[in-house]
Write the C-alpha cells for this entry.
Amino acid sequence: MTDTDKSQTINQIRIKRREDEVYRINISDDGQEIVFDLLDINLPYKVNKAFVDIEKNLKYCEGNILAIKNKYKNQKPVKKGMITQEELEIQNEYRKMYQKDREAMDELLGKGTMQALFGDSNYLTMFDDLFEQLEPHLSRLEINVDSVKERLKKKYHIGENNRDDGSVLS
C-alpha cells in the first residue's frame, strides 16, 4: 500500500447502517433498488410531496390542454405530418407533464429510478401503476417506521425522565 493509498484510507469515513433502519425494494435483475431511510424524519413529507406534485402537474397540464383546445376551437385543423398542430401541442403538454412527474418521483425514489422502471416510455396510467406497486411497500414502511421509533425511544429513553424544559438528559 502506497503512502497515497494510506492517506486516502485514513481520510475516509463510512457510516454503516443497520438493515432495520433502511427499507429496500429491488427494481431490476441487475440489483438496482429503491432505498428508503426509515430514520429520515422527512420521509413522510417526501412521499406526500411526490403525490402532491404529480396531482399538481396533472391539473396544470389539463388546464393547458383546455387552453389549446379553445385556441383551435373554431379553426380548420392544420396537419403537421400525420397529426394536426393542435394534437402536436397537446402531446407536447403531456410530454412536459411526464418529465416533471419523473423528476418528482426520482426525487423520492432516487435519481434514475423512473428510467430504470419505465425506460423512455410514458403512458397515461404509468403513475397509477407505480403507486399500485408501491402501496404495499409504503404500508410496510409504516410498520417499520413505528418499530424504529420505538427502538429510538428505548435507546434514548425518550418519554422517561423528561424535564420541564423538554430535554431528556439529567
Summary: Residues 96 and 111 are 18 Å apart (CA to CA).
